[in-house]
Write a structure and sequence with these properties.
Elements (H helix, E strand, L loop, with lengths): L1 E2 L9 H5 L17 H4 L10 E2 L3 E3 L21 E3 L11 E3 L13 H19 L7 H20 L9 H24 L4 E2 L6 H23 L10 H11 L2 H4 L3 E3 L13 E4 L2 E4 L12 H20 L4 H14 L8 H9 L13 H6 L4 H5 L8 E4 L2 E6 L2 E6 L7
Parallel strand pairs: 3-5, 7-9
Antiparallel strand pairs: 1-8, 2-6, 3-4, 8-9, 10-11, 11-12
Keywords: Signal
């Protein structure tokens, strides 16, 4: 979802507690409309089970329900958990999300705290936690989960090597681990065995409301901006990696975007079909910062593909992102969704330096775009004698280069 610097290396929750639902990390290659099929369970031993079929989070938490800029088509999503006693007819948890925020003036952290105060009691009750224990668990859990949301999607651009930051984060997630353990122990009627599959599912479900409010905060703060589609020069780089997703799916890019407080130095954020960038609209190959902005887009469009695989459902992606964040030991860089994005943004490196950068210049000459189409190869070949070739949709673009220019 984000491209930024790694915040810290912290003690993983799964080492603290041994809790984690074991899911396949790879997303499907084609669009689907439900998180059920995207979060595929691996084989789990009988002693590692939670007697619960799924977590269901219905509703729409958008603050801009009548605006085309608001997250749309948010219905429901499920996070499957292992059920030892039933199959598809098993029970589920319905998490009632808080009412929409009426305006964009409330601080994001306060709005997230309100959301958690309203949704967490319902979740705990349906997890089987005794009613008498819920107020204390909510009081203890809300500030921890609020800070965890900000850490997972907002603070990666902070000072990752600052000892004070590292210490604070380690303490935060150790505290969350202890809180989750209390929740699982309280839900005795649902848990079989050590229930080491429960922790990350509880974490993802508990923090989802705050994640959705972050998406709303971006929509509110950029409501007056005019988003752009990708340009042909950007498509030159995006197409060989991501195909025509930008135009097929109506991806919109907000340049010079307003970032809610707390989002540190994150260069880009993807929320559904919207990509928010701090950078200005350097959208032509002649623009001074074109290559840097385009490389950020390669990262963010990987997240667009991840959203597409989940039907652009904010609930489903939020659950998946938060679950993988927990599964990675609360490490932004080790989150499998971020690992995929950082890996793919490097695929076109050969086209971001000379002589690779010369292809887009020649491609912009009269008639070349129309005649050859977009690149389909991610790297160029070098037959020799200072000649270089790049495979395009309708043929091959060949250039001959000197020391500093090509033709």
């Amino acid at each position: 979802m984000f491209i930024s610097r790694d915040l810290s290396r912290i003690s993983p929750l799964l080492l603290t507690l041994g809790f984690c639902l074991d899911l396949v990390s790879a997303l499907p290659g084609k669009p689907i409309g439900s998180a059920v099929n995207a979060l595929i369970l691996r084989d789990v031993p009988p002693d590692r089970i939670l007697n619960l079929n799924s977590i269901v989070l219905p509703g729409n938490a958008s603050v801009l329900t009548n605006s085309t800029l608001a997250p749309s088509n948010v219905t429901s999503a499920t996070l499957p958990l292992v059920n030892s006693t039933s199959t598809a007819s098993g029970s589920s948890i319905s998490v009632i999300l808080p009412p929409p925020i009426k305006n964009g003036s409330k601080l994001l952290a306060d709005a997230q705290e309100d959301a958690l105060h309203q949704s967490l009691p319902y979740l705990l009750k349906q997890l089987g936690v005794d009613s008498a224990a819920i107020p204390e668990l909510v009081s203890e859990g809300v500030p921890l989960l609020r800070d965890a949301i900000l850490a997972s999607i907002a603070d990666q651009g902070g000072h990752p090597q600052d000892p004070a930051v590292l210490l604070a984060r380690r303490g935060l997630f150790n505290s969350i681990g202890k809180w989750v353990k209390k929740v699982v122990k309280q839900g005795i009627n649902l848990v079989k065995g050590p229930a080491i599959d429960a922790g990350c599912g509880v974490f993802a479900a508990s923090t989802l409301g705050g994640y959705l409010l972050s998406a709303d905060a971006f929509a509110v703060q950029n409501i007056l901006k005019k988003p752009k589609a990708t340009t042909p020069d950007q498509d030159f780089y995006i197409y060989p990696l991501h195909g025509s997703i930008s135009h097929d799916d109506g991806i919109r890019i907000f340049y010079n975007a307003n970032f809610p407080p707390g989002f540190g130095e994150a260069a880009g954020v993807t929320m559904g079909r919207n990509i928010y960038l701090r950078e200005a609209a350097h959208i032509k190959y002649t623009d001074s910062n074109f290559l840097d902005v385009t490389k950020i887009l390669l990262h963010e469009f990987t997240h667009s593909e991840q959203y597409r695989a989940l039907g652009y459902n904010l609930h489903a992606f939020g659950l998946r992102y938060l679950f993988e964040y927990c599964k990675a030991g609360f490490s932004y860089k080790k989150n499998s969704l971020e690992v995929d994005a950082y890996k793919k943004q490097e695929y076109l490196n050969s086209l971001f330096s000379f002589p690779g950068t010369e292809f887009v210049k020649v491609w912009n000459q009269r008639g070349v775009q129309q005649h050859l189409g977009l690149p389909k190869a991610r790297i160029y070949s070098s037959p020799g004698n200072n000649q270089y070739s790049l495979a395009l949709q309708k043929g091959t673009l060949s250039i001959t280069c000197g020391l500093s220019s090509c033709s």
